[in-house]
Design a protein that fits this description.
heterodimer, A: mainly beta, six-stranded mixed β-sheet, about 0% helix, B: seven-stranded mixed β-sheet, four-stranded antiparallel β-sheet, 11 strands, about 50% strand
Chain lengths: ~120, ~120
């Protein structure tokens, strides 16, 4: 099955700096890569996603890049703010068939943005 | 956007009792729902895939007789933790695949989670 590795496990930055979180996946058939933000005791919130036919996607301060050949994808947050502090999870999914929508999550990254 | 409601948000029960958790898609029909378990400061681990009108598919290592899943309608899936024990204490969270008519509706929308504490 799919295996998703996420690094770093913790990330501490100063407000205004950029933050980068990286993930690798093992199944070359994976074609959908979402990123979720989870605050303590809350549900994961989808913040951005990318499909395998796209190399990069940006939404305001958040961007995701995908390298299919190397099987890795990254989350980039620019101009970080204290409210960006949370746990971030990457995930991978293979579309189609009975596994449609079945996500495998990375281990998570605790991001702390210091004012 | 798609809304998934999960109840209860928190439950405390005695060892040996059963607990039922409900997951509802409020404004769309969800033919497939997923149940995850999350331990403190850890990732979400998929327990099972719930398909409306058919038996759930459990991940390796998850006891199907322990975690009963019922998906009797297009908007409701339930997870029952039977004969709960302290080691079952965890954060349980459901998710539903987003609705069509998007070409690829693989987006997942999560319920608010249920914190189960077994004494």
């Amino acid at each position: 099955g799919e295996n998703v590795e996420q690094h770093p496990s913790t990330l501490s930055v100063q407000e205004g700096d950029s933050a980068v979180i990286k993930c690798t996946y093992s199944d070359s058939a994976s074609n959908y890569f979402p990123w979720y933000k989870q605050e303590l005791g809350k549900r994961p919130q989808l913040i951005i996603d990318i499909r395998s036919n796209v190399g990069e996607k940006k939404d305001q301060r958040i961007a995701v890049t995908l390298n299919k050949t190397a099987k890795h994808f990254s989350l980039h947050i620019t101009e970080t703010q204290p409210e960006d502090s949370a746990v971030y999870f990457c995930a991978a999914s293979t579309g189609g068939g009975t596994s449609y929508g079945k996500l495998t999550f990375g281990q998570g990254t605790i991001l702390t943005v210091h004012p | 956007g798609a809304v998934v409601s999960q109840h209860p948000s928190r439950v405390i029960c005695k060892s040996g009792t059963s607990v039922k958790i409900e997951c509802r898609s409020l404004d769309f029909q969800a033919t497939t729902m997923f149940w995850y378990r999350q331990f403190p400061k850890q990732s979400l681990m998929l327990m099972a895939t719930s398909n409306e009108g058919s038996k759930a598919t459990y991940e390796q290592g998850v006891e199907k007789d322990k975690f009963l899943i019922n998906h009797a309608s297009l908007t409701l899936s339930t997870l029952t933790v039977t004969s709960a024990h302290p080691e079952d204490s965890s954060f349980y969270i459901c998710s539903a695949r987003g609705p069509p008519p998007t070409v690829t509706n693989e987006k997942l929308f999560f319920g608010s989670g249920t914190q189960l504490s077994v004494l």
